[in-house]
Predict the 3D structure of the following.
Amino acid sequence: MPIIDVHAHVGPWPFHMDTGDAAFNISLMDKYGIDLQLVSAAEAVVYDALAGNAALREVLAVHPRLLGYAVVNPNRIEESAEDLRRCLDTGRFVGAKIHTHYPGRHIGTREMAEAFDLLDEAGVPLLLHTWGPEVALLPELLESRPRLRIIMGHAGGDAWREAAHAAAACDRLYLEHCRTVTDAGRIDYARASGVPVERLLFGTDATLIDPSVSLGVIRDAGFTSEELERVLWRNAVGLFGLEGVLSPTRFP
Amino acid sequence: MTAVTTYDWLRTAPEEFIGWDVDVLYGPWPRHHADIGLAGVRARLARSPVSRALAMSTRGALFDDAAGNIRTVKDLADCPELLPVGTVDLRDALAAEERLDALDAEGVRFLRLFTEQQDVEPDFPGYRHVIGQAVSRGLVLLHDGDPRHYGPALAGRGADVVFLDVHSYVLADFLLLARSEPGFRATTRLLSAPDAIERVVETAGARHLVFGSRTPFMDISPQTLRLRYAGIGEAERAAIAGGNVEELLG
């Protein structure tokens, strides 16, 4: 059974850790049996979206097991719009990534609304860094943007209960639970709140976080075998249109 | 199609065995949507690779330290896999000596502090008083919070301190502290970076790490899997999983 990791990064982080280059991503994928990883450039997330996305285009050209998110900086929406098109045109990018902390724009800001408009028009999934109770705004923000589908990265972080209720209220919101602080019961709570297993995705935050952490969360969630298939890869295939991307021997 | 699961990580392996977990609580915690009592915590541990733990009632952390300590000792008397941990409320430091005397009479050797819940900073007089009293009695401190804030106040005392909240993001600061403080240890709970555990082992030594899951508030498997797959030797893994706590227990 394959595994698709929908939340990962390539490149170094400004902490005391060896997060390395794409080869390090591949080595961790091999270690844990992850077939495909959807990555953004750490440089693009933290520092320079255009430069980071450009560097990632070169990485993706030589690493078929990696697919890309183009990082959108909501503070510079026009240049990010052009860059998003540039990335999507390569055929190696499958979505966009927006962080809220580094650009300092939170979900309820005018700049974020413009970024959501851009992604609604582009029609590709958005991996959004979600942290805090502002996630409760998302269902309303998606009402007027019918093509926008958002993966709530970290499932709201410390606001995982609010994130669960937001996802239960809108069928274009997906939960992805990677996080160092693995609060017990997050997935149970989301399911009890009405989030169907079809909208749970697997992500690791590698290479910032070792994939074993998210795999442990999945193990403790107690999914059935069929539910595991959905969470670990089938839901991602459906959301990103990845049919045929995985090896036929591992993708029945 | 019939689903077939073949993942190694789905099943517990011997490399996940934990001899001592230093971070276990039980009882009410009002910020959570549900509480888990002692029976629930014991059941959760019994399903996990954790065999023994240092545990305490949340009453002492949030409401009444004296009553909480009595509750912990009484509750755990019939739990052979759990060893009681005491606490002192840092907001009432003048009562510390009385609390510590009571814990000493019960043979409690671990003292857990809750600076976050009690809103206490390392330069507060009450905090310094409690630390001084505890260290002079040879207690092992189980300490919450950021080691960058509390580490300097604890250094230079020859203290045995287990930091319960060391995150990968602050690992460099912890390692700088550990260079000159042989009694400083961290739990592996938040050392989530792919090389964080390995860096501590390589640069400071495995003696500076112990296992602490924060059951029942956190999932256990992410932490036992991280240790299972860590790129360290078997002796180092055994030390982190329990050997280092055995040394502290004497």
In short: Chain B touches chain A at residues 1, 3-10, 33-34, 167-169, 171-172, 175, 190, 192-196, 199, 215-226, 228-229 (CB under 8 Å). Chain B has one domain: 17-249.
